[in-house]
Amino acid sequence: MGLFSRTIVPKSFIGVDIGTSALRVVELSGWGDRKTLKNYAQLRVESLYDKPFRAYEQNSLALSSQDLARALRALFEDAGMKNRKAIFSISDFSSFFTSFELPATITRKELESAVQFEARKHIPLSLSEVTMDWQILDGPDKGKGTNPYRVLMVAVPNEIVNEYQNIAKIAGIELIAIEAEVFGVIRACLPEEHGLTLLIEMGAQTTTISVVENRKLYLSRSMDQGGNALTRRISEALAIDYLAAEKEKIAKGLDVKVGETKILLPIVDLIVTEVDKFRQVAERQEKKTIGKIVIAGGSARLPGLAAYMQSKIGVPAEVANPFREIVYPPVLEPVVQDMGPAFSVAIGIALRGFVS
Ligand SMILES: Nc1ncnc2c1ncn2[C@@H]1O[C@H](COP(=O)(O)OP(=O)(O)OP(=O)(O)O)[C@@H](O)[C@H]1O
Ligand SMILES: [Mg+2]
């Protein structure tokens, strides 16, 4: 077949984010650098149950695989997904991240087994219980340099991988990959080239703080703190029900007060303190300064959050826009503005499908 007679069929992939507060799916299609939003959908947990719940109780999902599969199938059908090729994200809370060095003298061929060997020392579970993935952050330049390899390793309990495979099977979805959420957020929210950045993903239940440069992840840590804790605090302090507290939070953010006291600050400060610790560790390790803070996740739009982070940490902070390189119809602009940061994981995970 001649080069010019070939029809280029755009590829299309679906990113699936099973979060504590919502299931989100995004279908992207395209080729090269141009990706188009084909479909998106979300199912908020409140629409299934009358109060939020913890989707991850340790390593298992609170909803049964059957229920999740049913919900996903319904979402796919409602959204009119054109295909069934999907990538699932795994909560950073269930993933184990570590990084280590290996000598520059190791050849590329030997690297795989050296990484496996070294991983044993770093992973608290037996290697037969986990699925591992790794990437090289730094290393000898084309065999010439003497810098050691720096390897980032992610391990996920097989139990979770099996559960996701099972959910996909019941839902009739072709699961082509599983990836830790943080990699999706990085791909969706940061350009290929950028300086040392603090990336914060604040969801309903957890907040993940990561240090990234040129889309390479150097450090990452998840905290069991998120938007739900803020809503609970408002509900208790103002003696209003959960849904009213949620509205109050979205309207006033950090300015929600009882008397003169801004009641959300103590919770937000737990996160800010951790972010600042990360900044210090990263700056010491990398011998560079952090140039920017990018905030993603549903809680990124908490009024006042970015400005507060910026003033406390002394680094410019902005809300992530995971749609910035995605083509979408102009009528969706308000939706993108409103829900954009909450779709960071789903978009980034869908983009994974295009990585060759
Ligand atoms: N405009 C807004 N302002 C403040 N908070 C918001 C806003 N929109 C959504 N949220 C909060 O974002 C949270 C949901 O974020 P997200 O959808 O990223 O979480 P999730 O992925 O379901 O949870 P997790 O990742 O923690 O498992 C909720 O606590 C919700 O109240
Ligand atoms: Mg999430």
TrEMBL record:
InterPro entries: ATPase_NBD, FtsA/MreB, PilM. Pfam families: PilM_2. Coiled coil: none annotated. Gene3D superfamilies: 3.30.1490.300, 3.30.420.40. It comes from the Bacteria. PANTHER family: CELL DIVISION PROTEIN FTSA-RELATED, ETHANOLAMINE UTILIZATION PROTEIN EUTJ. This is SHS2 domain-containing protein.
